[in-house]
Specification:
Elements: H1 3-66, H2 69-78, H3 81-85, E1 88-94, E2 98-104, H4 124-130, E3 133-139, E4 144-150, H5 155-202, H6 221-273, H7 278-310, E5 318-321, H8 322-332, H9 334-340, E6 343-348, E7 353-356, H10 358-374, E8 381-388, E9 394-400, H11 422-425, H12 433-443, E10 446-452, E11 458-464
Parallel strand pairs: 6-8
Antiparallel strand pairs: 1-2, 1-4, 3-4, 5-7, 8-9, 9-11, 10-11
Helix pairs in contact: 1-5, 5-6, 6-7, 7-12, 8-10, 10-12
């Protein structure tokens, strides 16, 4: 089975399990709701029946008190319809404990123990559910009367209401299940796209990520899929950069290695034809050493840049005077500036102390000043300046009046081995200075930015947060 099919099958199984779990939970919740609603139905029915029974007992007790037992019996027999509609029967006890039916629902048995079914203070569930009857005693002048209500006659009504409730809940569950199924499919659709992306990535294919992926669902899992897609696109850019870097390194190192090879072969051939050509051997060895040093310097710079990017070197931060650091860097380049006829000077606040790694900052400034002198013509000017900002940050600028950099190259010059044009390509260097300076500045917790225009010089700004 292909990996893509495995991903799709796994996601389908996940969707099915989620749907079944949700359906099970929904069914359980609906059952609980049905039980609660059914309980409320039964309780409401009990409350109504108890109220009717109590109202009749009060009415009949008034007749017994102000009239007579015979008057009540006459009233009951003359108008039994109300009792029959409510499934209530009236009995009277005559010695010896024999129950006589008077009026109402004649389906109720006469051999029951009425005292067992007295309402009193019993819990409603026991009174209405577990006992078939509810009874109230009325005391007459010569005998007792009993109002007895049949609970079982009310159960069908409650069960019909409960059935309608469950039917409504089942219909609701069906509609909800369909809706949730579609919602799960739509929600998890980004995972299918993500799975396909990762599947192609595992196969080593990154071409599909050359352009941003358009997702229908940009929220939830869609955001995760979009983030992964962006990370993979970034990975593709990194791999492309690595490929370009390897090609550039191979191209730049091939030249000194080829020269070493040619110089050594030529010297060896000449030594065979001319055993006394000691000077040619010395010249060849000198060329080989020079070209090998160039290759070694490039590899050293690349390793140093990699160390900065991976954070292998720990910062040695301490409070130092930024003016001293700037003056020290200017002092290192005074002779080179004099030889090229370029004015080099510093402009910094006195006693401006700031906590930073002075050695690493010095290396950054060395790279920037070296570039500024390299691309400035005779009569130009290079200035190092620093200032403490109102928010406590430290700003350092290296300004030159050199050839400048076109705005379209501003974001690219900090890439390793990138060179702007032929005028810069012909200059000495490996295209690593600004990359290394940017990486070091980041490790210092700051940023390195550029303001420049072609033919008008450049200003590199280092901003270190307090």
């Amino acid at each position: 089975m292909f990996s893509k099919q495995k991903v799709e099958l796994a996601l389908q199984n996940t969707q099915r399990r989620l749907y079944l779990r949700f359906t099970g939970i929904l069914l359980l919740c609906l059952i609980l709701i049905g039980i609660v609603v059914g309980t409320l139905f039964f309780y409401d029915l009990y409350r109504v029946e108890k109220k009717i029974l109590g109202s009749l007992s009060v009415e009949y007790q008034r007749i017994l008190k102000f009239e007579s037992d015979k008057k009540l019996i006459h009233v009951l027999k003359a108008n039994p319809q109300r009792l029959i509609e409510n499934n209530i029967a009236v009995f009277m006890n005559s010695p010896p404990e024999s129950a006589v039916f008077i009026a109402g629902d004649n389906s109720l048995p006469t051999d029951m123990r009425f005292s067992t079914y007295l309402i009193n203070d019993k819990f409603w569930v026991k009174t209405f559910i577990f006992e078939p009857f509810m009874a109230i005693k009325m005391q007459g002048n010569s005998q007792d009367f009993w109002l007895v209500l049949s609970n079982q006659a009310r159960y069908p009504q409650a069960f019909r209401q409960l059935q309608m409730t469950f039917l409504s809940l089942i219909i609701l569950m069906l509609f909800t299940s369909v809706f949730i199924r579609r919602l799960i499919q739509k929600t998890m659709s980004p995972l299918i796209t993500l799975g396909n992306q990762l599947d192609k990535l595992s196969e080593g294919s990154l071409d599909m990520f050359a352009e941003p992926l358009v997702l229908e669902n940009k929220g939830g899992l869609g955001t995760i899929s979009h983030s992964v897609n962006a990370a993979i696109s970034r990975l593709q850019q990194v791999i492309h950069t690595m490929d370009s870097t390897v090609d550039a390194i191979a191209h730049d190192i091939r030249t000194p290695l080829s020269r070493i090879t040619l110089a050594s072969e030529r010297a060896l051939l000449n030594s065979i034809n001319n055993p006394k050509g000691q000077q040619e051997l010395q010249n060849a060895l000198s060329d080989c050493a020079e070209y090998a040093a160039q290759a070694s310097n490039m590899l050293t710079a690349l390793m140093k840049l990699n160390d900065e990017l991976t954070g292998k070197k720990q910062l040695q931060s301490s409070s130092a005077d930024i003016t001293q650091v700037l003056n020290r860097v200017c002092h290192w380049y005074e002779e080179i500036a004099d030889e090229k006829g370029i004015q080099l000077h510093c402009a910094s606040q006195s006693n401006a102390f700031f906590k930073f790694d002075s050695d690493k900052l010095s290396q950054v400034l060395v790279n920037l000043v070296d570039n500024a002198l390299k691309y400035s013509n005779t009569g130009g000017e290079v200035c190092l300046s620093s200032s403490l900002l109102a928010n406590g940050s430290l700003q350092i600028q290296v300004t030159d009046t050199g050839i400048g950099i076109d705005i379209e190259h501003h974001d690219l010059i900090f890439k390793r081995l990138y060179r702007v044009d032929d005028s810069r390509t012909n200059a000495e260097g490996y295209g690593l200075g600004l990359s290394l300076a940017s990486a070091m500045t980041s490790n210092l917790g700051g940023t390195l930015s550029l303001e420049s225009s072609l033919g008008k010089g450049s200003t590199f700004t280092i901003l270190l947060k307090s």
